[in-house]
Design brief:
Elements lengths: L3 E9 L3 E10 L7 E5 L5 E12 L13 E7 L13 E3 L9 E3 L7 H7 L20 H17 L3 E7 L4 E9 L3 E9 L4 E7 L10 H10 L24 H10 L8 H9 L8 E4 L3 E4 L17 H11 L5
Parallel strand pairs: 7-8
Antiparallel strand pairs: 1-2, 1-6, 2-5, 3-4, 3-6, 4-5, 8-9, 9-10, 10-11, 12-13
Length: 322
Amino acid sequence: MPFRMRVSSVVDKGPDLSLHGQLVEGSYMGPETVLICDENGRWVHSMITQHSIEFPKGWPVVPGDGSTLILSIAKPSSEFELDRSRLVIGHGAVTSNSNRVDISATLDDPAFWAIWLPLHLNCEELPEPSLAWRVTGSEADKAYIERFQSQWDSGAWPFIRFGLQDDRYVEIEYAASIEYQSRVWIGTGEGPRVLLGYDSGHFSFPTMRIQELLDLAERMDCHPAASLLLLDGAYLVEGEPFPLDVVARWLRQSPGFQDTCLDVVLRGFAENVVPGLRWESTENRGWINNSQYSQRNPTSPMSILCDEDFQFIRNFFRLRAD
């Protein structure tokens, strides 16, 4: 739920206003667009440029946790004067954009894999992980600017869609709002569309169980290595076996991948284990988890999902027996 904050003090910092206050509703998960009211009663849009927290108790920030949220908000104009009696209203961390570009064809290019998969490989054995796909770091940076940054600068958001039977799909959307988010969606044609999670500076993971990913991989009509792009959000539970042979096959099918790097990359992916993570199968909501950052945790203040969304997720994954 988008946050609402009661303002206790305001400091004019020139281009920004520094607002101290406490939440009265929703949760604050990171920079987003907001509505603020001026002294003439006019509501205007602005954006949070940075934040800090006094007396932090955890993340995200929620009402009644005893913390003071300090937001730097861009002034809509040099003459703007804030009405401190009105709440600051957030728009939520997940915004939309009708200007989108399908870049699914780029999965045939080694540079695509050299851009995204190394983000989740942190090991001394591969100091320049993009080379696993025969792409140098500078070449990957250039491809990133040409294929992603240029789209964002023009106002467009790239996305990749993986088809399933019954007009269903899995989609990765590379969103550029206040912060960059790599979002995982599921949906049906022109029908419902539900967020499973996203990677960003203020991530919302896990998106799915590893078994759900394996089942999807068998059903998706797309590039044979596409499931690798969903692997980072499929956290492993402690003691859960990593599907080594399957992921090895996906890696070998990713364009440009060098088999000599296979063992190192597999070890990096196999470390995606989260201590304390638990999944539970429920009748009404399907599989839910206990991660405070997950969309699929109905008690998480970061989740924007309603009961209908959980039921859609349950039915989506029930196409294959649990």
